[in-house]
User: Fold Aminoglycoside phosphotransferase domain-containing protein from Cryobacterium sandaracinum.
Amino acid sequence: MDEEVLAGGNSSTVVRVGDTVHRPAGPWTPAVHQLLTTLLAAGVAEVPEPFGLDEQGREVLSCLPGIVGNYPMPSWIWSTTILHEAGSLLRRVHDASAPLANSATVWQLPAHEPVEVVCLNDVAPYNMVFQDGHITGLIDVDMASPGPRIWDLAYLAYRLVPLGEYADDDAPGWDARPGRLDALIRSYGHEFDQAAVLRAAADRLEDLAAFTDQRAADTARRDFVEHAALYRRDRVRILEMIASQWAS
Assistant:
């Protein structure tokens, strides 16, 4: 069957073949497929089903129907409905993943302490699938690795509150963002205070900037250099939020 290259891939080529998605595999792929199988068995139906590898050694996953939240994002991405659904879905994923958090397996990224769940490490609109203004899927979970719940929640807050630079005129204004952060935390259903989530977001961006620096060195891609610089600027902005007591 013909292969259709899918938009949005940042580091690798992802193609659709019929009702399946084929993407590069790695030593971490068995762990990711075990994670997906575990989530599906626990009733988290919003993730792809793994089908092993194709004849080219690529992993094969079911293709989830809907629209991926690629940039530039549509205005409806910022609805409170999606904010609440994102927090709730992340909590379900974490709870279902907990039995795998301390398993002896190979992940693409290192674990972060304290290990509580398997973090997806890249939960953001560009890795979500939407239908009729609702979240119906999570994709691209190959960056998963064990870590604390707040590590994932903080990055989701960074992308969906949002907490950093954002040029889109439809994005919520700064006066709305403390309330959106509080709503996201409540939707997740854990008693994190805003300052703790902001501190975790700053740590996450420091880690992400270093990771992106290495990708820039490995690939000579200028856009990775620019991304790393953005993450560092946003980290400074978040630290300023904490210092100004922006969060409760």
User: Anything to note?
Assistant: Strands lie at 4-5, 15-17, 20-23, 50-53, 59-62, 67-68, 117-119, 128-131, 134-138, 145-147. Residues 194-219 form the longest helix (26 residues). The radius of gyration is 18 Å. Residues 4-62 form one domain.
